[in-house]
Amino acid sequence: MSTVIKNGTIVTADLTYKSDVLVEGGKIVAIGEGLVGDKTLDATGCYVMPGGIDPHTHLEMPFMGTYSSDDFESGTRAALAGGTTMVVDFALPSPGQGLLDAMQMWDNKSTRANCDYSFHMAITWWGEQVFNEMEAVVKRGINTFKHFMAYKGALMVNDDELYASFQRCAELGATPLVHAENGDVVAELQAKLLAAGNNGPEAHAYSRPSQVEGEATNRAIMIADMAGAPLYVVHTSCEEAHEAIRRAKMAGKRVWGEPLIQHLTLDESEYANPDWDHAARRVMSPPFRDKKHQDSLWAGLQSGTLSCVATDHCAFTTEQKRFGVGDFTKIPNGTGGLEDRMPMLWTHGVETGRLTPNEFVAVTSTNIAKILNCYPKKGAILVGADADIVVWDPAKTKTISASKQQSAIDYNVFEGKEVKGLPRYTLTRGQVAVTDGDMTCESGHGAFVAREPNGTVNKALSTWKELTAPRPVVRSGIPASGV
Ligand code: URP
Ligand code: ZN
Ligand code: ZN
Ligand code: ZN
Question: Least CB-packed of 60, 79, 384, 474 within 10 Å?
């Protein structure tokens, strides 16, 4: 059974052209004029683009005494509804738990996925077992390791552990990721705010000013450089963090930054809302920022100093958020966005002229496929690539509403926002999962995407580090000892 997408304009990260696309056996098998298939999808007036890749989700994540409410079924359904065809989630070993054990747990969670997925492995503690199992994890197709510099007493790791793990990543040809916030300072600020009676959701933002992110981002970059590893900084939300990334890139360091659609389009005024639920639903780390940071993030996407737009989708219901009534430090941290990332970015990026359609494809799909070393299987409209395709209708509009969303939670942080630009069709490995908002996805269709280590950047960096490594000075007349 083959499918042909006809009458559309193909938009990739570097090209825009009119052509048909023929899909068979889950792959793109031909691109050209006048193609014929068993089934035809009409893309008149639409862009035919690589499906989105969200490199940062937390589906059914155990966190802050509960589990995030979207699992791999509802989460990937939401993804497909918004034109995203692959998610990368985080396997999180609990303290003392082996990495392979955690990987097995996340394998079990993901069996109902509607679209393809991969994992990052989190390094939540350090020891010989972790060191050894990192190699086994890489052999099983995970080449990225996540480190939390915040959440003291829970997921946080310290600088010595970061350095050890980053060095191990460099040896294995893997890439470390960081959640960059100074967890020690956050813990101090939280205690101080609570002691002063500042216990509402707005205090969450006060406890995590942009300085804690800027400092940690710079520290992680320098540690990665000393360890000889590239670095991917998740949820870059402010100018201070962006500045550190920009400076590092200009100095030749291999560093990438990932703004979230939430930080690009929502700001800290949400926490001043008199409705406790409204504010608590928007509690995430890093928090929403002063609007001025948004200009920095958009400029980063335009200039290439920031590389990918993600969601950090970690959805908690209002009931779960209410665990933190009277103590903001107990509000589960996280917001949703999987269904809305692509339409919101198109509306606020392409429709405003901040991004070209090609840049949109780069930051929603192709760049991350390259960074994660799964390009061009993913992130491409090329013969041989997986047929993860979104047929994007730039004229289609909707008002975002929790009442119509795929996510399992009872609200949406983008509620009431008008978007222009939505999928007409979303295809996951050739299977039509969305037709003008109607879902025909299949639970369990999604498959794990294994990713090889030693991508081109890892290779180049290790070559350079080897070439510039400290070497002993060769001397001829060595003085006798003790003289
Ligand atoms: O608040 C957030 N971001 N929750 C999910 C976990 C994380 O820090 O990414
Ligand atoms: Zn994080
Ligand atoms: Zn996250
Ligand atoms: Zn299937």
Answer: 474
CB atoms within 10 A of CB 197: 8
Mean of pLDDT over the chain: 98
Average of per-residue pLDDT across 291-308: 98
pLDDT at 482: 60
> Which pair of structure tokens corresponds to residue 361?
């494809």
Angle at 381 between CA 375 and CA 385, to 5 degrees: 55
Residue 478 lies in a domain: no
Q: How many domains does the chain have?
A: 1
The DSSP string of 390-429 is EEEEEEEEEE--GGG-SSSSS--TTTT-EEEEEEEEEEET
Ligand 1 pocket test target in 284, 331, 413 with most atoms within 8 Å of CB: 284
What is the rounded CA–CA span in Å between residue 183 and residue 330?
Answer: 16
Parallel, antiparallel or unpaired: strands 431-435 and 418-428: antiparallel
In a domain, 43, yes or no: no
The residue whose CA has the least distance to atom 8 of ligand 1 is 285
Residue 34 domain-assigned (yes or no): no
Global pTM exceeds 0.95 = yes
Distance CA 115, CA 51 (A): 11
**CA distances to 116, 180, 298 from 359, in Å:** 23, 26, 12
Complex ipTM above 0.85?
yes
Closest approach atom of ligand 1 to CA 179: 8
Atom of ligand 1 nearest to the CA of 68: 5
Which residues span the domain enclosing 247?
A: 48-461
Among candidate residues 270, 267, 331, 330, the one with its CA nearest the CA of residue 298: 267
The CATH number given to whatever domain includes residue 54 is 3.20.20.140
| pLDDT tens digits, one per residue of 103-139 | 999 999 999 999 999 999 999 999 999 999 999 999 9
Q: In sequence order, what DSSP letters do the residues of 304-322 get, joined into one string?
A: TSS---B--B----HHHHG
